[in-house]
């Protein structure tokens, strides 16, 4: 399954969460299919896991961004 690389920074937080849910469901289906009969491309499981990790990393980066901005602002105010 060839996927085109998507620009994660262009997606909204809600889109990221939706994409994580879709990819997680896709991963479960792949694992289930692989347990029943071997997949033609078992590397697709790894690719899907990594895509989920990329999505979660971007979402977490966005959650931490306001804290980092506030820490930088408070550091600048002390000087």
From TrEMBL:
Residues spanning the membrane: none
GO cellular-component term (any): ribosome
An annotated Gene Ontology molecular function: structural constituent of ribosome
Coiled coil, from the record: none
Disordered: region residues: 60-79
Top-level taxonomic group: Bacteria
Database matches in SUPFAM superfamilies: Ribosomal protein L29 (L29p) (SSF46561)
Keywords per UniProt: Ribonucleoprotein, Ribosomal protein
Biological process according to GO: translation
Family stated for the protein in its record: Belongs to the universal ribosomal protein uL29 family.
Official protein name in the record: Large ribosomal subunit protein uL29
